[in-house]
Every structure is written in C-alpha cells, then in structure tokens.
Amino acid sequence: MAEAQPLEQEIFLSLQRTIDAPVDQVYSAWTDPELMRKWFAPGELKVARAVAEVEVGGTFLVEMHGTDGESHLTRGVYREVIPNRRLVHTWQWEGSDIESLVTVEFEPGSPSTTQLTLTHSRFADSEARDRHEGGWNGCLLKLSALFPGQEIRSAATS
C-alpha cells in the first residue's frame, strides 16, 4: 500500500470530485471497459480501445484517437485492487520510458454520492504533471456527464 502514497519530493497531482452516484456505479465506470470508452479521454479525443483486467497484476490500457487521426496509448499494471474502495495502477505512454502511478479512491458520501480522489504521482517534471492535470480534468468532466448533478471540487496540486 505504501507505493500508492506520493512522497514529499515527488511531483504529483490530486483531484477530488463529489459525484452524484453510489460508489458501485462510479467504481464500475473505472473498471468496465464499455463504460471507460464513454469518458476516459479528454476533450475531442475518443476512446478506441479500453482494457481493464481488474486484479493485481492485470492489464490497464486505454487507446485514444483524435479527430485528426493521432493515436495516444497508455498502459499499466494494476498494483492494488480493493473493489469499490481503491484502484492503483501504473501509467506509461507508448514510446515513453517513464512510468507513473495512478491511485483512485472511492468513499461513500451522503446520500448516494461518491467522494472520488484521484492521485497521479511519479511525474518526471512539473510540465508533465500540468499536461496530465489538464487531461484528467477533461476526463473527469466526461465522467461527470455519466452522473447528472455532479458537484465539482478541485484539490491542490504539488
């Protein structure tokens, strides 16, 4: 579990959302490839392929395509899976040697809401973090569209 916590000197981002849906539905949006295809790409990008073998050692993969044909593929390995509570997986863009870490925590709110905390850590530099922050914000906007009535709240980035 310690590997999922960012170290003080690490460059990371942390985003929080309160989502107007029960934890099991929000968790499914992160673990069901069909649902992932609906939101796991920012802006005009579309998810062409999603793989979620949601078990420790299982594959995580998202391939996004842009309107001009560009392709972006990220993959990783699930490091920790606690159903409806926590997902931790590595994150590595195709063609890159840098592997970062994504931790998603799901906390029940009231009534029938989910407190979602996404932490993306182990960035090589602040520029990479900033690019990912924009991407994650775009993805989370699409995720919110799956659950009407979402209240958006952002947290600090370091």
Shape: globular
Distance between the termini: 21 Å
- The H-level CATH homologous superfamily, spelled out, is START domain
Strand content: 35-45%
What is the averaged pLDDT score?
A: 91
Counted up, domains total 1
CATH class type: Alpha Beta
Name the CATH architecture. Answer: 2-Layer Sandwich
> Structural class from helices and strands?
alpha+beta
Major sheet details? 8 strands, antiparallel
Element pattern in H and E: EHHEEEEEEHE
Helix content: 10-25%
Number of strands: 8
Adjacency order of strands in the biggest sheet: 2-3-4-5-6-7-1-8
Structural description of this entry:
There is one protein chain. The protein is an alpha+beta fold. The chain has a single domain, classed as START domain (Alpha-D-Glucose-1,6-Bisphosphate, Chain A, domain 4). Helices cover 21% and strands 39% of the residues. The protein is built from 3 helices and 8 strands, in the order βααββββββαβ. It has helices at residues 23-31, 33-36, 126-145; strands at 13-19, 46-52, 59-65, 71-82, 86-93, 100-108, 114-121, 151-153. An 8-stranded antiparallel β-sheet has the order 2-3-4-5-6-7-1-8. Strand 5 and strand 6 (100-108) form a beta hairpin. The longest helix has 20 residues, at 126-145. It is globular and about 45 Å long. The model is unreliable at 150-158 (pLDDT under 50).
